[in-house]
Amino acid sequence: MSFHHKPNKYVKNVTIKVQHLERSLRYYREVIGFQVLEETTTTAKLTTDGENNILTLVQPENPLPKERRATGLYHFAILVPRRSDLANIVFHLIDKGIRIGSSDHLVSEALYLNDPDGNGIEIYVDRDPKTWSWKNEEVMMTVDPLDFKDLLQAGNPEETWNGLPDGTLMGHIHLHVSRLDEAEEFYVKGLGYDIVNRFGDQALFISSGKYHHHIALNTWAGVGVPSPPKNSAGLDSFTIDLPDETVKDQVVSRLEKIGARVTEENEKVVTTDPSGNRIQLEYK
Asked: Is residue 56 exposed (0-12), middle (13-18) or buried (19+ Cβ within 10 Å)?
Protein backbone atom coordinates (compact mmCIF):
# COMPACT_ATOMS: atom_id res chain seq x y z
CA MET A 1 0.00 0.00 0.00
CA SER A 2 2.84 2.39 -0.85
CA PHE A 3 0.33 4.57 -2.72
CA HIS A 4 -0.81 5.84 0.69
CA HIS A 5 2.56 6.93 1.99
CA LYS A 6 4.86 9.84 1.26
CA PRO A 7 5.92 11.12 -1.25
CA ASN A 8 2.40 10.59 -2.63
CA LYS A 9 -0.41 13.04 -1.92
CA TYR A 10 -3.08 10.81 -0.42
CA VAL A 11 -6.33 11.28 1.50
CA LYS A 12 -5.53 10.72 5.18
CA ASN A 13 -8.88 11.46 6.82
CA VAL A 14 -12.48 12.21 5.90
CA THR A 15 -14.79 14.15 8.22
CA ILE A 16 -18.52 13.72 7.68
CA LYS A 17 -21.54 15.38 9.26
CA VAL A 18 -24.31 13.24 10.71
CA GLN A 19 -27.73 14.02 12.16
CA HIS A 20 -27.51 11.76 15.22
CA LEU A 21 -24.02 10.99 16.51
CA GLU A 22 -25.10 8.13 18.77
CA ARG A 23 -26.96 6.41 15.93
CA SER A 24 -24.02 6.87 13.56
CA LEU A 25 -21.49 5.63 16.12
CA ARG A 26 -23.49 2.46 16.60
CA TYR A 27 -23.56 1.92 12.83
CA TYR A 28 -19.87 2.58 12.25
CA ARG A 29 -18.84 0.36 15.13
CA GLU A 30 -21.25 -2.55 14.72
CA VAL A 31 -21.76 -2.61 10.95
CA ILE A 32 -18.60 -1.14 9.44
CA GLY A 33 -16.23 -2.22 12.21
CA PHE A 34 -14.43 0.94 13.37
CA GLN A 35 -13.09 1.55 16.87
CA VAL A 36 -13.59 4.86 18.69
CA LEU A 37 -10.36 6.75 19.27
CA GLU A 38 -11.85 9.90 20.85
CA GLU A 39 -15.42 10.98 21.55
CA THR A 40 -17.26 14.12 22.69
CA THR A 41 -20.96 14.95 22.73
CA THR A 42 -20.79 16.15 19.11
CA THR A 43 -17.74 14.48 17.54
CA ALA A 44 -16.10 11.07 17.29
CA LYS A 45 -12.72 10.14 15.85
CA LEU A 46 -12.66 6.62 14.45
CA THR A 47 -9.74 4.28 13.92
CA THR A 48 -8.91 0.71 12.96
CA ASP A 49 -5.53 0.41 14.71
CA GLY A 50 -6.09 2.39 17.91
CA GLU A 51 -3.72 5.14 16.76
CA ASN A 52 -4.62 6.70 13.41
CA ASN A 53 -7.86 8.63 12.90
CA ILE A 54 -9.09 7.98 9.36
CA LEU A 55 -12.78 8.89 9.74
CA THR A 56 -14.34 11.61 11.88
CA LEU A 57 -18.04 12.06 12.64
CA VAL A 58 -19.45 15.50 13.49
CA GLN A 59 -22.98 16.36 14.57
CA PRO A 60 -23.61 20.04 13.68
CA GLU A 61 -26.10 22.28 15.43
CA ASN A 62 -29.65 21.88 14.11
CA PRO A 63 -28.64 19.14 11.66
CA LEU A 64 -30.52 18.71 8.41
CA PRO A 65 -30.85 15.65 6.14
CA LYS A 66 -28.29 15.12 3.40
CA GLU A 67 -29.04 17.05 0.19
CA ARG A 68 -29.41 14.86 -2.89
CA ARG A 69 -28.81 17.44 -5.59
CA ALA A 70 -25.79 19.27 -4.25
CA THR A 71 -22.02 19.15 -4.28
CA GLY A 72 -20.17 17.22 -1.60
CA LEU A 73 -19.69 13.57 -0.76
CA TYR A 74 -20.50 10.82 -3.26
CA HIS A 75 -18.61 8.29 -1.16
CA PHE A 76 -15.48 7.81 0.89
CA ALA A 77 -13.61 4.57 0.30
CA ILE A 78 -12.11 2.31 2.95
CA LEU A 79 -9.20 0.22 1.66
CA VAL A 80 -8.62 -3.13 3.37
CA PRO A 81 -5.23 -4.82 3.07
CA ARG A 82 -6.20 -8.31 1.90
CA ARG A 83 -8.81 -9.95 -0.33
CA SER A 84 -9.68 -12.29 2.53
CA ASP A 85 -10.59 -9.21 4.60
CA LEU A 86 -13.10 -8.09 1.98
CA ALA A 87 -14.57 -11.59 1.79
CA ASN A 88 -14.97 -11.74 5.58
CA ILE A 89 -16.67 -8.33 5.53
CA VAL A 90 -19.20 -9.75 3.06
CA PHE A 91 -19.92 -12.64 5.46
CA HIS A 92 -20.32 -10.12 8.29
CA LEU A 93 -22.70 -7.89 6.31
CA ILE A 94 -24.78 -10.91 5.29
CA ASP A 95 -24.99 -11.90 8.94
CA LYS A 96 -26.17 -8.37 9.80
CA GLY A 97 -28.74 -8.38 6.99
CA ILE A 98 -27.17 -5.32 5.34
CA ARG A 99 -27.95 -4.70 1.67
CA ILE A 100 -24.92 -3.82 -0.43
CA GLY A 101 -23.95 -2.92 -3.95
CA SER A 102 -20.79 -4.25 -5.55
CA SER A 103 -18.51 -3.89 -8.53
CA ASP A 104 -15.35 -5.22 -10.13
CA HIS A 105 -13.31 -2.23 -11.31
CA LEU A 106 -10.42 -4.33 -12.72
CA VAL A 107 -8.00 -2.44 -10.47
CA SER A 108 -10.05 -3.32 -7.40
CA GLU A 109 -13.05 -5.20 -6.02
CA ALA A 110 -15.57 -3.08 -4.15
CA LEU A 111 -18.64 -3.13 -1.94
CA TYR A 112 -21.02 -0.15 -1.64
CA LEU A 113 -23.47 0.86 1.07
CA ASN A 114 -24.88 3.96 2.77
CA ASP A 115 -24.81 4.99 6.41
CA PRO A 116 -28.04 6.02 8.22
CA ASP A 117 -27.73 9.58 6.82
CA GLY A 118 -27.14 8.49 3.24
CA ASN A 119 -23.39 9.12 3.30
CA GLY A 120 -21.89 6.82 0.69
CA ILE A 121 -19.33 4.22 1.74
CA GLU A 122 -17.11 2.02 -0.41
CA ILE A 123 -15.11 -0.84 1.10
CA TYR A 124 -12.58 -2.26 -1.33
CA VAL A 125 -9.38 -4.18 -1.90
CA ASP A 126 -6.87 -3.42 -4.61
CA ARG A 127 -5.68 -5.94 -7.11
CA ASP A 128 -1.93 -6.25 -7.62
CA PRO A 129 -0.82 -3.03 -9.39
CA LYS A 130 1.22 -5.19 -11.77
CA THR A 131 -2.10 -6.35 -13.25
CA TRP A 132 -3.45 -2.83 -13.86
CA SER A 133 -3.64 -1.90 -17.53
CA TRP A 134 -2.37 1.55 -18.57
CA LYS A 135 -2.69 3.21 -21.97
CA ASN A 136 -1.65 6.77 -22.79
CA GLU A 137 -1.19 7.54 -19.06
CA GLU A 138 -4.75 6.38 -18.26
CA VAL A 139 -5.57 3.30 -16.21
CA MET A 140 -8.34 1.02 -17.40
CA MET A 141 -11.25 0.78 -14.97
CA THR A 142 -14.67 -0.76 -15.46
CA VAL A 143 -17.92 -1.27 -13.56
CA ASP A 144 -18.26 -5.03 -14.03
CA PRO A 145 -20.27 -7.40 -11.81
CA LEU A 146 -18.34 -8.65 -8.79
CA ASP A 147 -17.72 -12.40 -8.76
CA PHE A 148 -18.94 -13.10 -5.22
CA LYS A 149 -18.46 -16.87 -5.56
CA ASP A 150 -14.78 -16.41 -6.30
CA LEU A 151 -14.31 -13.65 -3.70
CA LEU A 152 -15.93 -15.58 -0.86
CA GLN A 153 -13.56 -18.50 -1.42
CA ALA A 154 -10.84 -16.21 -0.07
CA GLY A 155 -12.66 -15.73 3.24
CA ASN A 156 -13.72 -17.83 6.20
CA PRO A 157 -17.41 -17.74 7.20
CA GLU A 158 -16.53 -19.39 10.54
CA GLU A 159 -14.03 -16.71 11.51
CA THR A 160 -15.13 -14.43 14.36
CA TRP A 161 -15.79 -10.87 13.19
CA ASN A 162 -13.44 -8.45 14.95
CA GLY A 163 -14.07 -5.30 12.93
CA LEU A 164 -11.97 -3.67 10.24
CA PRO A 165 -8.46 -5.16 10.24
CA ASP A 166 -5.30 -3.36 11.25
CA GLY A 167 -3.76 -1.87 8.11
CA THR A 168 -7.08 -0.51 6.84
CA LEU A 169 -6.69 2.95 5.27
CA MET A 170 -8.77 5.72 3.78
CA GLY A 171 -8.22 4.68 0.19
CA HIS A 172 -9.83 7.56 -1.70
CA ILE A 173 -12.70 10.01 -1.77
CA HIS A 174 -15.26 10.54 -4.53
CA LEU A 175 -16.94 13.94 -4.76
CA HIS A 176 -19.91 15.57 -6.41
CA VAL A 177 -18.76 18.81 -8.03
CA SER A 178 -20.63 21.59 -9.75
CA ARG A 179 -18.50 21.88 -12.89
CA LEU A 180 -15.87 19.39 -13.98
CA ASP A 181 -13.66 21.91 -15.78
CA GLU A 182 -13.38 24.09 -12.67
CA ALA A 183 -12.66 21.04 -10.53
CA GLU A 184 -9.97 19.88 -12.94
CA GLU A 185 -8.20 23.23 -12.77
CA PHE A 186 -8.28 23.22 -8.97
CA TYR A 187 -7.17 19.63 -8.38
CA VAL A 188 -4.72 19.27 -11.27
CA LYS A 189 -3.26 22.76 -11.74
CA GLY A 190 -3.69 23.74 -8.11
CA LEU A 191 -3.13 20.67 -5.96
CA GLY A 192 -0.88 19.00 -8.53
CA TYR A 193 -2.67 15.70 -9.08
CA ASP A 194 -2.36 13.68 -12.30
CA ILE A 195 -5.36 12.69 -14.40
CA VAL A 196 -5.46 8.90 -14.63
CA ASN A 197 -8.90 8.33 -16.13
CA ARG A 198 -11.68 10.34 -17.79
CA PHE A 199 -15.23 9.02 -17.77
CA GLY A 200 -16.51 11.08 -20.69
CA ASP A 201 -17.43 14.58 -19.61
CA GLN A 202 -19.08 13.39 -16.38
CA ALA A 203 -16.26 12.14 -14.13
CA LEU A 204 -12.54 12.51 -13.60
CA PHE A 205 -10.16 10.26 -11.66
CA ILE A 206 -6.92 11.74 -10.34
CA SER A 207 -3.99 10.44 -8.33
CA SER A 208 -0.43 10.79 -7.15
CA GLY A 209 2.27 8.21 -7.87
CA LYS A 210 0.24 6.34 -10.52
CA TYR A 211 -2.43 5.05 -8.16
CA HIS A 212 -5.75 4.28 -9.86
CA HIS A 213 -7.24 7.26 -7.96
CA HIS A 214 -6.86 9.10 -4.70
CA ILE A 215 -9.72 11.44 -5.62
CA ALA A 216 -12.63 11.13 -8.06
CA LEU A 217 -14.86 13.98 -9.21
CA ASN A 218 -18.25 13.77 -10.90
CA THR A 219 -21.24 15.86 -11.97
CA TRP A 220 -23.79 13.07 -11.50
CA ALA A 221 -25.82 15.20 -9.07
CA GLY A 222 -26.23 17.73 -11.89
CA VAL A 223 -24.10 20.34 -13.62
CA GLY A 224 -24.16 23.61 -11.71
CA VAL A 225 -25.66 22.17 -8.51
CA PRO A 226 -25.13 24.33 -5.39
CA SER A 227 -23.25 23.59 -2.20
CA PRO A 228 -25.43 22.05 0.53
CA PRO A 229 -26.35 23.91 3.75
CA LYS A 230 -23.49 23.90 6.26
CA ASN A 231 -25.55 22.01 8.82
CA SER A 232 -26.76 19.24 6.52
CA ALA A 233 -25.43 15.70 6.74
CA GLY A 234 -22.65 14.98 4.28
CA LEU A 235 -19.07 16.03 3.78
CA ASP A 236 -17.51 18.39 6.28
CA SER A 237 -13.92 18.20 4.98
CA PHE A 238 -11.15 15.85 4.03
CA THR A 239 -7.43 15.88 4.76
CA ILE A 240 -4.66 15.33 2.23
CA ASP A 241 -1.19 14.43 3.48
CA LEU A 242 1.54 16.30 1.60
CA PRO A 243 5.15 15.03 1.48
CA ASP A 244 6.79 18.04 3.13
CA GLU A 245 6.83 21.81 3.56
CA THR A 246 8.49 22.39 0.19
CA VAL A 247 5.61 20.67 -1.60
CA LYS A 248 3.19 22.62 0.60
CA ASP A 249 4.73 25.91 -0.55
CA GLN A 250 4.45 24.82 -4.18
CA VAL A 251 0.81 23.81 -3.74
CA VAL A 252 -0.08 27.07 -1.98
CA SER A 253 1.58 29.07 -4.76
CA ARG A 254 -0.33 27.20 -7.47
CA LEU A 255 -3.63 27.51 -5.62
CA GLU A 256 -3.18 31.25 -5.19
CA LYS A 257 -2.33 31.64 -8.89
CA ILE A 258 -5.69 30.12 -9.86
CA GLY A 259 -7.52 32.34 -7.36
CA ALA A 260 -8.22 29.79 -4.63
CA ARG A 261 -8.48 31.08 -1.07
CA VAL A 262 -5.80 29.60 1.20
CA THR A 263 -5.20 29.98 4.93
CA GLU A 264 -2.52 28.38 7.13
CA GLU A 265 -2.50 27.41 10.79
CA ASN A 266 -0.96 24.71 13.00
CA GLU A 267 0.96 23.07 10.15
CA LYS A 268 -2.19 22.78 8.07
CA VAL A 269 -3.29 24.57 4.93
CA VAL A 270 -7.04 25.05 4.57
CA THR A 271 -8.66 25.65 1.20
CA THR A 272 -11.97 25.07 -0.58
CA ASP A 273 -12.50 23.80 -4.10
CA PRO A 274 -14.78 25.70 -6.56
CA SER A 275 -17.72 23.49 -5.51
CA GLY A 276 -17.41 24.34 -1.82
CA ASN A 277 -15.69 21.11 -0.74
CA ARG A 278 -13.38 21.98 2.18
CA ILE A 279 -9.87 20.51 2.23
CA GLN A 280 -7.12 20.46 4.82
CA LEU A 281 -3.54 19.90 3.68
CA GLU A 282 -1.12 18.51 6.25
CA TYR A 283 2.64 18.72 5.78
CA LYS A 284 4.21 17.51 9.04
From this structure: buried
Q: Which domains does the chain have, with CATH numbers?
A: 2-282 (3.10.180.10)
pLDDT of the chain along its 284 residues, tens only? 589 999 999 999 999 999 999 999 999 999 999 999 999 999 999 999 999 999 999 999 999 999 999 999 999 999 999 999 999 999 999 999 999 999 999 999 999 999 999 999 999 999 999 999 999 999 999 999 999 999 999 999 999 999 999 999 999 999 999 999 999 999 999 999 999 999 999 999 999 999 999 999 999 999 999 999 999 999 999 999 999 999 999 999 999 999 999 998 888 899 999 999 999 999 97
Kindly give the pairing relationship between strand 53-58 and strand 10-17: parallel
Q: What are the percentages of helix, strand and coil residues in the chain, rounded to 5?
A: 20, 35, 45
The full DSSP string for 181-195 is HHHHIIIIIIS-PEE
Q: Is 73 helix (H, G, I), strand (E, B) or coil?
A: strand
CA-CA distance, 102 to 182, in Å (whole number)? 30
- Positive or negative, the CA dihedral 176, 180, 186, 188 is positive
b/e 221-246 (16+ beta carbons within 10 angstroms → b)? beeebebbeeebbbbbbbbbbbeeee
- Other beta carbons within 10 angstroms of residue 160's beta carbon come to 7
Query: What is the C-alpha separation between 197 and 132, in angstroms, rounded?
Result: 13
